[in-house]
Amino acid sequence: MIGRRCLLAITLACLAALPATGAGAAERTSPQQAAQFLEKMATETLAVLRDQGATLDQREAKVRQVMRENFDLPKIGRFVLGKAWRKATPEQRAEYQRLFSEFVLRTYAKRLGGYAGETFKIIKAGPLGKRDALVSTEIGRSGGPPLVAGWRIRGGPKGYKILDVIIAGISMIATQRSEFRALVSRQGVDGLIEALRLRVGKFPVKAS
Residue 184 and residue 175: Cα distance in Å, rounded? Predict the structure, then answer.
């Protein structure tokens, strides 16, 4: 079994490997501004989750919209696909990105939609790598101990975006990248696309 220190080392290696392409690639994200960005997003999300006048489907739809606006899903999707991205055709890339975004949005909106009353506290913020900031938070839960999570955030021409979420030393993108790599090695990019299509189908979007 992989130890926690080894998992943390793998996570940090994956975080450092995230591309820093585009204009202004050398600019560093301000940890203070990244924390303010995350605080604003958290306030908006908690307001949605606490809205007892909205149906579960309506809350999930609003959470998806918040995530779509604040997560850099195209960059995350490309990184998660890894080396297979370079070998994929333009058609495969487009379909993969569409399905990956829907998979992330629907999965996490479904998990969050039924929550209510949680608290969100920023513990600290600091630089990560050459460009990014890592904001550490504590999320209060009524049914258990607080959840400590780290958020990798990058600033750019389109504002601040979340690139990763790290919980218990385990990176969301590192975990997904490992899973996808194994699937592509067995079934190819088309196999991964079909698997994502099936997963997205498990979380249909209902009219609210």
Answer: 14
User: Of 172, 169, 148, 176, which is closest to residue 8 (Cα–Cα)?
Assistant: 169
* β-pair partners for 164: 152
- 163-188 pLDDT, tens digit each: 999 988 899 999 999 999 999 999 99
* Token duo for residue 56: 């579960």
> Do 144 and 40 contact (CB within 8 A), yes or no?
no
Long-range pairs for 171-180 at CB < 8 Å and ≥24 separation? Answer: 171/10, 171/11, 171/14, 171/15, 173/14, 173/18, 173/76, 173/79, 173/80, 174/10, 174/11, 174/14, 174/15, 176/80, 177/14, 177/79, 177/80, 177/81, 177/82, 180/80, 180/81, 180/82, 180/84
The residues spanned by each domain of the chain are: 28-201
pTM: 0.82
| Fold type of domain 28-201 | Nuclear Transport Factor 2; Chain: A, (3.10.450)
